[in-house]
Amino acid sequence: MANIILIGPICAGKSTVAELLAQHTGMPRCSLDDIRYQYYEELNYDHDHALQLQEKYGFWEKYKYWKPFEAHLVVRVLEEYKDHIIDFGAGHSVYEEEALFHKVDRALHNEPFVFLLIPSIDKEESAQILCERSELDFNRYFVEHESNERLAKHIIYTKNHTPEETMREMMNYISVI
Question: Smallest Cα–Cα separation from 92: which of 165, 30, 136?
């Protein structure tokens, strides 16, 4: 078995479906949001600096500060975690800098089960649904950014599907390969 990796915007269902997959397959689960800081610190992440950036300039400055740490996290986790269900945070699969994108793309290259969870093929509809769920308008950025589609090996449209139905659809892809 290989890793099963879930990527996508905030509130797309990654954590919920990852937990269902872990229960269904018996594979251990790894949530990048839960372990990120231990890997960020390998590159001397400064939590206070990140908070100061957000307080002084807003969320997007902190977001930009996070990007090299997020790419490092993805690479390190894929080196260390095998045969896991891995759910990414929304930003862990979105990169503005091509060098960081390519670093993550190379790390995911041999991973056959990288699933993008998104409500609809229509990005505007997806953005509306997810912004309502999260009440975070910046989630639209994660929906519209091309990184998720470039990194995904499979796209699962979740609108009108329960998490269990989404999990079963993913298992159909996995059992075919």
Answer: 30
Mean pLDDT score of the chain = 95
Q: Which residue has the tokens 């997959």?
A: 21
The answer to whether the Cα torsion of 116, 88, 43, 80 is positive or negative is negative
The counts of H helices and E strands in the chain are 9, 5
- Locate 15 and state its tokens: 């954590």
Query: 64-95 burial by CB neighbour count: b if 16+ within 10 A, else e?
Result: ebbbbbbbbbbbbbbeebeebbbbbbbbbbbb
Backbone dihedral angles phi then psi of residue 157, each to the nearest 5 degrees: -90, 120
pLDDT-derived band at 175, boundaries 50, 70, 90 = confident
Residue 53: what residue type? L
Q: For tokens 């590159």, name the residue.
A: 43
